[in-house]
């Protein structure tokens, strides 16, 4: 059931006047289009970034496939429009629409948005507003869709709490269908005989009662309107429930059997080039390691795997349905998959005759790395990507990343011997206790790898050290630590670049203003939502793209909203302090994080004494 009138208007007035119109027209291979009159529930899955990013996100394909397997529901897609597209939609009074049927977001039963990156928060407001939905959750009635959030940014839901009805932590596969079913039941309950809903205060009150039913029934469904933060000294002191029948804390949604969750074997094939133009198969969820800096390893617990033949069969079916010539096996640390070598051998056995490349994007640095290049190398693959994070053994003990430089260097030697011609290394700067020698180590390690490459290949290979600015994230042992200041990062970046002596070695440092804003938003409380709205009202759009980011707009919005950036981002928390995200539970919980924080403090003191 395609909205033909809207489509014709887009064809005549909008698409000819925007860049890359193919991202807005739908109709791609493997999309699912259902007649809305034949389904009970209509779900629109949104990604608050450009089509090229959203279509590369594996989770969107998984949930799209999961919902569309049901005969009584349909799932459609929507992405953040670029500013030229947004301007024309507003000029012609066309609401933001789904790519499958050109249905306005306001006409769906549920709109689910994946919150992957804090800097994209204004995009969320654009999509809600442009879709014809009241911006603030408490202004909606039962006539409006349920606005649902998931993704890693829900680990601290407070900065975006005012704009969502329900926020989910944990795995989306078990939770999304259940939340949708419950919401549809509530809509049926409050729908009038003529199919309409009450408006005004009555409609808002009905919506609150409907949301309370979801909050009471689902331990992983956080409904922010029922929780009121209290503040003192510019920090949260408590989060008080306004109803006794909703839970005090929120538990994560968890899949116990990943192998039992069907692989999306008919992924949508985009019309335009995306960040990842390939088949993606998740082989493992979770990580066996407990690195102190890593939020993902905390929120994706416990460790769950898929069987080798499940992966191979899913990859083959996806290949037949798409024609992609590359398959990427996904997890937080693919080489820690317990059957990694048999899996890669089997994939090469099946797909090499078809000229399909096997990509392994997340390799762990360990003794296995010495044999991996021979295992994963192909004629097409030329670059090895690794994440040592830091370059010295005592700092690695501090962050709990148990790797050795000797393994990394010998792994790179094996890569060069197997026709790899470049290496990319991911590091962090600004970690707790960081010293100049830790920065020295980054350049020294990169240059040591370059020298090994010259020994093997007779010339220096390209070695890139990509250095990110550390942001202490919720639910990690570093959540109590403040973030380094702008001046430190400027000094550190300059220092790193000044130490490079080999021309083929490049140090690339992440943008400091972007990292600081990420820190503000990821560590904020509910008041931060007002700053997000101010930045959005003043034009913040697509700020995850450097060419669109205006940091001064953000710093002014934060100041005007009364946010004490120094307190929020750079000051440490006491271990017993109330944190804005304490009501969100993770596996092992706060007690484990407190113990790890204590161990970290002892190690930092020993490191300082050793210098």
Notable features of this structure?
17 strands, four-stranded parallel beta sheet, alpha/beta, six-stranded mixed beta sheet, 611 residues, 20 helices
Describe the protein in words.
With 611 residues, the chain is α/β, with parallel strands linked by helices. Helices cover 38% and strands 14% of the residues. The chain has 20 helices and 17 strands. It has helices spanning 4-14, 51-54, 58-68, 83-91, 121-130, 172-190, 200-217, 296-299, 308-322, 340-351, 372-376, 393-399, 405-417, 436-457, 486-498, 512-522, 528-537, 551-560, 565-570, 589-610, and strands at residues 41-47, 73-79, 110-114, 146-150, 166-168, 221-222, 227-232, 235-241, 279-282, 284-285, 304-305, 326-330, 357-359, 383-389, 422-429, 462-469, 505-509. It has a 6-stranded mixed sheet with strand order 2-1-3-4-5-6, sandwiched between helices. Strand 3 (110-114), helix 5 and strand 4 (146-150) form a beta-alpha-beta unit. The chain is globular, with a radius of gyration of 25 Å. The mean pLDDT is 93.
